[in-house]
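Progress note, project year one: complex with iron/sulfur cluster.
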Amino acid sequence: MKALAGGLITNTAAAYAFMLPYDHVLPIWGVQFEWQLDQFLSYQDQEPVMDAAMKTEIEKDLEELQGEFCRGCGYCMPCPVDINISDCARMSLMIRRAPAQGQLTPAMQAMMKKTEDCIHCGKCKSMCPYGLDTPTLLEKNYQDYKEILAGKEI
Ligand code: SF4
Ligand code: SF4
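Model obtained:
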């Protein structure tokens, strides 16, 4: 279980506290930054306790991340035309939940443009453990990305 979903969830204490009651869950934290791992390690000595603020944040995350939500696990890769699926299929979320500037660099724009090369072979879709329609998700994320580049407010 990726507690931070590769960077889409940012409150390490809430993620840790949420998982504590589930003895059968083995966390693979899915951190984006080393400091997040440091925080998790510190919780082994001092466990965070679920409180009202954490619950509110988890509810908000649940609302935003349900449905067509790519976890960035990468099980659908490699792609035969080298599309970076695990980053491109969740760009709309990353750009809104992480600092947007880092997602709009020329390198990131080139990465997103590469989704145009999709040959719709269906390999990614058949491998996704969450049953996502990955090629369609890529198209939606790229469309949103182009609109953001053109000035759409995020
Ligand atoms: S459907 Fe498109 S994105 Fe998915 S593996 Fe095939 S070429 Fe890559
Ligand atoms: S499309 Fe599915 S398999 Fe691919 S990275 Fe996203 S969640 Fe994982």
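The helical segments are 12-19, 34-43, 52-64, 85-88, 91-97, 106-113, 123-127, 134-149.
The radius of gyration is 17 Å.
No further modelling is planned for this target in the current period.
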